[in-house]
Amino acid sequence: MQEPSPFPEPVQPPVQVAEPDGATLTFLFSDIEGSTRLEQAIGTRAYGVVRERHRVLLREAFAACGGEEQGTEGDSFFVIFRSARGAIAAALAAQRSLAAEPWPDGAPIHVRMGVHSGEARTEAGSLVGIDINRAARIAAAAHGGQVLVSGATRSLVRDEALEGISFRDLGSHRLKDLDEPERLYQLVADGLRSEFPPAKTVGARPNNLPTQLTSFVGREAERAAVGSLLAGHRLVTLTGPGGTGKTRLSLEVAAGVVDDFPDGVYFVPLDAVRDPGLVPSQIAASLGLAETGSRAARDLVVDWLARKTVLLVLDNFEQVVEAAPAVADLLRSVPGLKLVVTSRAALRISGEHEYPVPGLPSPPDLAGLSALERAQLPVADREVEAGGLAVYESVRLFIERATAVKPDFQVTNDNAPAVAAICARLRGMPLAIELAAARVKLLSPDAILARLTHQLATLGGGSRDLPERQQTLRGAIAWSYDILDAGDRRLLERLSVFRAGIDLEAAEAVCGPAEEIDRDVIDGLGELADQSLLRVIDGTEVRFQMLESIREFAAEMLTARGEAEAVRARFGAWFLGLAEQARPMLAGPDQRRWLDRLELEHDNLRAALDRAVAAEDAETAIGLAFALWRFWQMRGHLFEARRRLDAMAAAAWSRRSPVLRARLMEALGGVCWWQADVPSMRVAYEEAVGLWRADGDRTELANALYNYSFCFTMPANPREAPGNTDPDGIGLASLGEALDLYRALGDERGQANVLWGMGNKQYFSTDPGAGVAAMTEALEIYRRVGDRTMEAWTLHMLGSAKLRLGDTETSRGLFGAALRLFHESGDASGLTMVFDDMASQAAYDGDPERAARLWGAARSLTASTGAGLASHVDQFLDQFLRPTAQAMLSPEEVTRLASEGAAMTIDQVVAYALGGGEAGPDA
Description:
Blueprint (H helix, E strand, L loop, with lengths): L24 E8 L2 H8 L1 H21 L3 E6 L2 E6 L2 H17 L10 E8 L2 E3 L2 E3 L1 H12 L5 E4 H6 L8 E9 L8 E8 L30 H13 L2 E5 L6 H11 L8 E5 L9 H8 L10 H9 L4 E6 L8 H10 L3 E7 L8 E5 L14 H5 L17 H13 L10 H10 L4 H9 L6 H7 L3 H4 L9 H4 L1 H10 L3 H10 L6 E2 H8 L2 H4 L3 H10 L4 E3 L5 E3 L2 H14 L2 H19 L8 H10 L1 H13 L3 H17 L3 H13 L7 H17 L3 H18 L2 H12 L20 H16 L2 H16 L8 H14 L2 H17 L3 H18 L2 H17 L3 H18 L3 H12 L1 H5 L4 H13 L2 H8 L10
Parallel strand pairs: 4-7, 10-13, 10-14, 11-12, 12-13
Antiparallel strand pairs: 1-3, 1-4, 2-3, 5-6, 7-9, 8-9, 15-17, 16-17
């Protein structure tokens, strides 16, 4: 039985976002000192009770003095006050309440507080500003039970009567991450402890940490992780490509642990050092040691560090990595020494603990997701709005740096999608985001995003006081490129042709052979990953990824070497082969794996297609389009498919080969069918029939005739009622000729296709049951030959026929079987149609609420995939089925329930449709 809490239940007030309107505010930060040690000492459950009581006491004090809570995380508070006097009174009342509280034995609570006054602004639903950062730094400098106050706040209350309160001047202190020193005062009053150790500021311990002129945004998790590694180990190496913020993170970590190193924390810049033998001399210089006489720098450093507890930060170690043994020697010789190293490659010495520095968390790039992937997102993540972006550190960094150059810059719902896409496409790389934000002075976020195709040119012009390698993205990457050996440079250049991930087999085929680049490709990939120029992607198979900025630089080098055309031709040939290998597999039992493989390689396939079109390489361009169009249809890329196919069809080069032209027309006709553009479909399919008839290939002609017959299955206008769409019998004659050809060829799958086509024509006539026999026969063949795609579509059509005939029990089972197959393969077009089917089923079953939700899900997926075919069926069902459900619901109820269905993810809709899930996005 759970013991009752000795404290009342805490009340969680709603977080208020202040509207600062230019007024001076006073900010108060607090947190519990030594909370982790306390939790370990008394146990997590007991600590949770104590922490909640502390929250109650602080909230009572803050509210009584006019405080407006802005944020609470763990044991910390961020509260604003409209007056400095109110903030001081609140801090005093809170500390007195904490001191008077009868805490359980062994669980005293000591809270440190910092108070500062200044200005702030609202961005993306949160308060931001340098004065907020300053208040947080002041709180971090305090000890438990102590209230530190800035000079700005002290000046605001100087002339007010504050009975029983005084301020002790602690002098000027340097706060970490802030350029100007701050004069600090300690609040002194009855009931408060008055004596404390020196404030925990950067200058309290010997150090040479450089002052940073910009605020440090985010990285709380990274700082904690590196700090934890450093607490348990003596050598921690931060690795990552140029621009990921390794140096800045190392300085933040160092500033945060100065109290742990009484003899000092020292920064050792190595960016100007090229000779590994000079590293000990550079360390000596950073420690302020002068080399004299014949004593080696190494001995001088070891003697000075002996019996001291010191942290050294060795920055930019990659170009002197041969000095790693000297670092190991130093650690062995000085027991009290710890090291943080930043490098694009690990040192690979005993005792090293590597920490790869990730990019800042960024919003998803919605433009890069397929319709199916977007539909799998929670509804709140399917659109980008300003209020939801503040949770991403990369966006907060962009806003912080943008307002530094354009103070009136704000993220709005209009520019939020562009800001999110900028941060996503730069993969959260701090240097790149800062350089992009600097462009806000002249360009809108949308204009910056449009120019990110050429990142190296767009992201330049950094601060002149930074090292040259940090002033532009090009400088950061060139720094890494220059220290590679010749073979690795050449491999990096060739890898630039990949636009998505890189697998081992493709890399060897495109970038090899080893004799050409004087480097084994597999070994080279590992070396480039060690140098942080490639990133290993987590997954079941080894796969690498290159940052876009690095890819652009390497592509320039490939062109300069004169190898671009040849390597791109290999790249196109490889991915054409992959697409052709995948095409027949998209209907079989392994279809999901192949669809997922093509989705994984989609950006590479796009790149190969774009290059082939630009080069008027019809064999590669049309070969890729023909092999991929089914993938585009099944995964919801119909808008892109139509745009690409229309452009190729209009190009003169696409007519040079009749065979290739016929394949292009088949792909275009198929996409037009799925977009319900019957007139365009007929033009394309008629041309394909004529070309194959002239060519004499009976198999291809039979398939073309089968495709052509669908031009006479449905009306050209989705709003027209279904009727006799083949008055001259052209469609039926085409199916008859195709069936004769397939029988002569002994092609069983082809015969099944024709039977399915005949069943469709009969279904959309006035007699829905007329097509059941033909489709049932087709279903048996599809199952026999293992065509799971057509098996699912036949189940869908049979279910629709049975439903129209009133056999609802049979239709329910057929729809369920079709839904499982489409869900298993990830076929977005099929899912759309079956959601519609099951909505109609629900209407017939007298369940209008389920029907409305499923209609909403179908309409949402239709809108994102670009599938217009559903509009034909939708119109048909409107006439025959939906009035049954609409008569039971008001228009407002239909709209509400449909919105609930649209908000569900694909998996949630499937579970709901099959009867195993509850309705709603939160189910």
